[in-house]
Design brief:
The complex is a heterodimer of chains A (344) and B (265). Chain A is mainly α and 344 residues long. Chain A has one domain (65-342): ABC transporter involved in vitamin B12 uptake, BtuC (Orthogonal Bundle), CATH 1.10.3470.10. In chain A, 75% of the residues lie in helices and 0% in strands. Chain A has helices at 13-32, 40-47, 53-88, 100-119, 125-128, 134-155, 160-184, 188-197, 206-232, 237-242, 247-269, 275-287, 294-317, 324-342. By secondary structure, chain B is of the alpha/beta class. Chain B has helices spanning 41-48, 71-77, 93-99, 102-105, 113-125, 141-154, 171-188, 199-205, 223-229, 231-236, and strands spanning 3-12, 15-25, 30-34, 56-61, 64-65, 78-81, 159-163, 191-195, 208-213, 216-221, 239-243, 252-256. Chain B starts with a strand and ends in a 9-residue tail after the last strand. In chain B, the strands form three sheets. In chain B, strands 6-7-8-3-9-10 form a six-stranded mixed sheet, with helices on both faces. Chain B has a four-stranded antiparallel sheet with strand order 2-1-4-5. A two-stranded antiparallel sheet of chain B has the order 11-12. Chain B has ten helices and twelve strands. The longest helix of chain B is centred in the last third of the chain and has 18 residues, at 171-188. Classes of the chains: A mainly alpha (344), B alpha/beta (265). The interface between A and B is large, with 30 and 42 residues.
Chain lengths: 344, 265
């Protein structure tokens, strides 16, 4: 019965490098290609530190911040999705199923409603409305929704199923409230809101990058520390606890982290659906039995898919670009269905 | 005293699943917990492992109240294998067994050679070395059960709580598990308490037996004394005799299949 055959460990390095190479490729494509038809030599010149002012402005002020914002938001959505799927032990969990997106939406809606009275818009409403505030407002709203879900689930004795049900219920209420508000008013606010709601990287600046970066850095810094808890949280609570896990504490930390990541990303770029749902499945599928790869794959694929999706949206739509949220939804559904067929 | 509890009561709603339950385990002993379905065996084990909070009473692990210990401290001293546990499907045997090292490595420390040895030993003791890289989904029910026992072994705890470890195993693996239990207690001094349905297996493997009925402890003593008490027939509502197959062997409960009046069908 006892055979001690040396266990063959598949290499972890090669697939990571392959993914990294793909990311660099897409990143370069995203920098070089765009609606403004810049010759590749101009782009290369800007990258090397010189080039014309116009090219510099297009690359450094428009394309790069937009790409970096997308990368960060992609990482946020993907990691938040992985964490939420882990703690709810529900393969369909993502920021929108957990009420976080809806919380952000409602907060932004309410903010736009009242901002009009505070700012007294002139003829050009769009320019005057304080869109710079949207990321922060959305983040606060998302985290508050997460907090409510947490408190409700905690009172009902924190468990995977309870968190999911509370998330869905709270999400439905918040969504209904936001829709109710929107139905009550017209004008330019709807345009801003709709653009934000569809999940878009349009006109994202370095300010958005600076807004997201602290969350990304903090999140990625604690992930390695949490990796063993994350593994154990996938078991039944009694099993995890008898393996020595302080279940409530670790679950709370992971839920808080996923809320912060998801809410900040929703605030900055709107609810980009399907990234949080599909990327963790894709990462698990690619990692197979190489468990340790799921987390790095999730981070890399999150960044990769949002960058690719935004590039597609820019190129396909040309001047009327297609929002990234639409792209991820359109391409996410077939990917998800294909993956579901592979899942036993 | 590695593990003891006094006056332990557990309520499910208004039903007392466990009523003033006392137990004292000596170091290195094998204790069998027997009783009809719903008599509180699992509840007793869960309360002993600190997974459910008792309404009354206290549990002590190595003389210290379990209530004041962190889950990790408890898990270093005590491993608990619940009934029919479930794991993420794509997890491999080795990954499951590795989780047993969590109380030792915690969140920060990396696995050292001792951890790897413990994992190897746990796999070998359950005959799973060759299956280490299989995913749990590909295993038979018996192999999966052994993988869970292996994970509990990897904890290297000196106290082991097993909730029906032989269920779903064929007779060969049942004996293998019971032999493993015996070896752990005699060779490594591990204190073991397990819920088990087969009365003859309980008698043959354990040093002492605790008999539960409706949450009450009816008997606590050596297998010979249990055989003489006549409680088995009464509690399980069956007819049978304790016989000795050889003069040195432990009593064997020989059951009559005709049921007593009022027996459950």
């Amino acid at each position: 019965m006892t055979m001690s055959a040396p266990v063959q460990r598949p290499s972890l390095i090669a697939p990571l490098f392959a993914l990294l190479a793909l990311m660099v490729l897409v990143f370069l494509a995203a920098v070089f290609l765009g609606v403004a038809d810049l010759p590749a030599t101009d782009v290369a010149a800007v990258m090397a530190g010189h080039g014309s002012d116009q090219a510099k402005s297009i690359i450094l002020d428009i394309r790069l911040p937009r790409i970096v914002t997308g990368i960060l938001a992609g990482i946020h959505f993907a990691v938040a999705g992985l964490l939420l799927q882990t703690i709810t032990r529900n393969p369909l969990a993502d920021p929108s199923i957990m009420g976080i997106s809806q919380g952000a939406t409602l907060a932004v809606t309410i903010f736009l409603l009242f901002a009009v009275y505070i700012y007294d818009p002139g003829s050009n409403t769009l320019a005057v409305l304080p869109v710079a505030w949207l990321p922060a407002i959305g983040t606060v709203g998302g985290i508050m929704a997460g907090g409510i879900i947490y408190l409700l689930a905690f009172r009902l004795d924190l468990g995977p199923l309870r968190i999911t049900l509370c998330g869905i219920a709270i999400g439905a209420v918040l969504h209904a409230a936001a829709i109710g508000l929107i139905a009550g008013w017209g004008s330019a606010r709807i345009e801003i809101l709709l653009e934000w709601l569809s999940g878009s990287l349009y006109a994202r600046s370095w300010n958005h990058v600076l807004f997201l970066l602290p969350f990304t850095v903090a999140g990625l810094a604690v992930l390695p520390i949490l990796r063993r808890s994350i593994d154990l949280l996938r078991f039944d609570p009694p099993v995890a606890r008898s393996f020595g896990l302080s279940y409530r504490k670790q679950l709370s930390v992971v839920l808080l982290l996923s809320c912060a990541l998801a809410a900040s990303a929703v605030g900055a770029v709107g609810p980009i659906i399907f990234v949080g749902l599909v990327v963790p499945h894709l990462a698990r599928f690619l990692a197979g039995k190489r468990f340790a790869l799921v987390l790095p794959f999730t981070v890399a694929l999150g960044a990769f898919i949002v960058t690719l999706g935004d590039l597609l949206g820019r190129l396909l739509g040309q001047t009327e670009e297609i929002p990234i949220g639409v792209i991820t939804a359109v391409f996410g559904v077939p990917v998800l269905i294909a993956l579901l067929r592979k899942i036993p | 005293m590695p593990l003891s509890c006094s006056q332990l009561s557990v309520l499910y709603g208004s039903r007392k699943a466990l009523n003033s339950f006392n137990i004292d385990l000596k170091a290195g002993e094998v204790r069998a917990l027997i009783g009809p379905n719903g008599s509180g065996k699992s509840t007793a084990l869960q309360a002993l492992s600190g997974l459910i909070v008792p309404r009354e009473g206290r549990v002590e692990i190595n003389g210290k109240p379990a209530k004041l210990m962190s889950r990790r401290t408890i898990a270093k001293q005590m491993a608990f294998l619940p009934q029919q546990p479930s794991a993420p499907d794509e997890m491999t045997v080795e990954q499951l067994v590795r989780q047993g090292r969590y109380p030792h490595v915690g969140l920060f420390r990396s696995y050292n050679s001792h951890d790897e040895l413990a994992i190897e030993w746990a796999l070998e003791s359950t005959g799973l070395t060759a299956l280490a890289d299989r995913s749990l989904l590909e295993l038979s029910g018996g192999e999966r059960q052994r993988a869970w026992i292996s994970a509990a072994l990897a904890q290297e705890a000196q106290i082991l709580l097993l909730d029906e470890p032989t269920s779903f195993l064929d007779i060969g693996f049942q004996v293998e598990v019971l032999n493993l239990v015996h070896r752990l207690s005699r060779e490594r001094g591990v204190t073991i308490i397990m819920a088990i349905h087969d009365i003859n297996q309980a008698i043959s493997v354990s040093d002492r037996i605790s008999l539960l009925e409706k949450g009450q402890l009816l008997f606590d003593g050596e297998p010979n004394a249990l055989a003489e008490s006549g409680l088995i027939e009464k509690v399980f509502r069956v007819k049978g005799n304790f016989v000795r197959i050889t003069p040195e062997s432990r009593p064997h409960f020989d059951i009559e299949l005709a049921r007593m009046p009022g027996a459950r069908i």
